[in-house]
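Worked example

This section walks through a single chain of length 204. The input is the sequence exactly as stored; nothing has been trimmed or padded.
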Amino acid sequence: MHIDDLVEHWTILDEERDLIAGKRDATRLGFAILLKFYTQHGRFPRGRSELPDDVVEHVAKQVQVPASELGFYEWSGSTIEYHRHQIRTHLGFRTCTTEDATKLAMWLAEKVAHAERRAERVREELLKHLREERIEPPTPERISRIVASATAQRGGRLDGADRLPVEFRDHAADLRAGRHRRCEPRGRRGSRCVSSGGKWLWRT
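Given that input, the structure is written out below as tokens.
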């Protein structure tokens, strides 16, 4: 990576140092890299493979931790989940909920997919919209489902919700009627949301 890009995107700012303060060794370096990556991309890295060595070296020098310490940073578990929470809060982002996903599919169908037939282009517009709304992109698989929902009904209006995947279909009707629901825990493949005693649950 060119030195100008390193300086522009991977330099720790004064207001970010307060978040890093108090953390040590691998935790300090890992947190700093997560923070700068999220600031640039609007999401977290999926692992060490997404981080060029020169980026790691550049950040390591700033936090005064050997770059090799990143090898001891745990990419799953309570520590990184807490780090993610801190970073989202600092940057004003939130995770993508079931309600968000349904609204996003509807927005794509109305604003993008009716005129754009290329799924990749629709995906790019979705990612751009997510960043504007300060919503963290969901998993690639979930992104693909949202895009598929929009492109499948690109010739219709929101009344075409009967062509949405089952995980969005009933929820879209609820949103139009002004109702809200919460599905938990997250459904497994082949599961769906059903109403039970005023609560929405995942059922297979």
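What to look for: The longest helix spans residues 25-41.
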